[in-house]
Amino acid sequence: MRWRFVWAIIILGLAECVLWLIAGLVQWSLANFSLGPVYSPQVAEAARRSMTEFAWGALNLACLVAYYLRAWSWGRWLMAAIQLANLAVTLYLGFSTVSCGENGFAGFWLAAIPAGSLALQYLLWRRIDRRPGSSPPLAALRTPITLAIVVGALAVGAALAVAGWRLGLDGIESHSGTVSSVTTDDSALSVTIDSSPRVYSFSDYAFEPLPLLSPGERVVILTGEACNYGTPLAVQSARGLWIDSIDGKAVRPYAPFNWGEHETLRWSLLSIGLVLELLSLVGMALWIG
């Protein structure tokens, strides 16, 4: 039984080594690729990233060999340390590549490999290698039903946290105030409000028709800071609501006047999801013993 767990951990570690080496090869092959002029600093940076991935893959392979040879002693601690580092690195890569709602989420799937390896190592340590005669805490609650509840709560918590996080990827900010000035040219409407020094420009390409605003009106403007470089996505006054026809999907079905409901939902989902995840992980550890 023990060697089944050991081989499962080894297979996961080997898959991780292969992925790191493939990532290094891909990065190396694309070092000179560019849609425009190729600059030597960019090529050098890509080469450094490739060599870093090669080195990290080699380090993973060395730890894997050490684990195979010394799985009963210091090898297990070395494997746990490298997989914990892999988990941190893959989570960082996932967060750094996600942008504007859709891009980069596939990177988070790589974190499942070190997470699964750590779970198997903990299970091996706490269940298979437990000294004979010792009884784990809360042994009476270690039933398949309890495990199903914990796993279900873990999945629900992850779904809630991801849903809440996705709602904030566009970085939409709300700006409210009284219109100070309105300037119209051939293709855009430029507006300033008394609470902000910024000039909000509404293009007739995205806003058809252009918002009907005049000085002295109370307005709320939503801007997309992360994905739209601070450009307005929606504006609402007592006379109407105007939403960007191209990028306004990040705002709908909400409107500037009720944007607080969106933020309440976002933070509630994120908070409840993270708390549920932490409680589920604690429950999983208690179930294992």
Write the SSE topology.
Layout lengths: L1 H28 L10 H30 L4 H24 L14 H17 L15 H23 L5 E13 L3 E6 L6 E4 L14 E7 L6 E7 L2 E4 L15 H30 L1
Antiparallel strand pairs: 1-2, 1-4, 2-3, 4-5, 5-6
Helix pairs in contact: 1-2, 1-4, 2-3, 3-4, 5-6
Explain what the structure shows.
With 289 residues, the chain is an alpha+beta fold. The protein has two domains: 2-134; 147-289, OB fold (Dihydrolipoamide Acetyltransferase, E2P) (Beta Barrel). It contains six helices and six strands, in the order αααααββββββα. A six-stranded antiparallel beta sheet has the order 3-2-1-4-5-6, with no helix packed on it. Helix 2 (40-69) runs antiparallel to helix 3 and helix 3 (74-97) packs antiparallel against helix 4.
What brief labels describe this structure?
289 residues; alpha+beta; 6 helices; 6 strands
Mean pLDDT: 86
Shape: elongated
CATH class bucket of the largest domain: Mainly Beta
Q: What would the CATH topology of the largest domain be?
A: OB fold (Dihydrolipoamide Acetyltransferase, E2P)
Give the DSSP E fraction (strand runs of 2 or more residues). Answer: 5-15%
Oligomer: single chain
Q: Sketch the major β-sheet.
A: 6 strands, antiparallel
Number of strands: 6
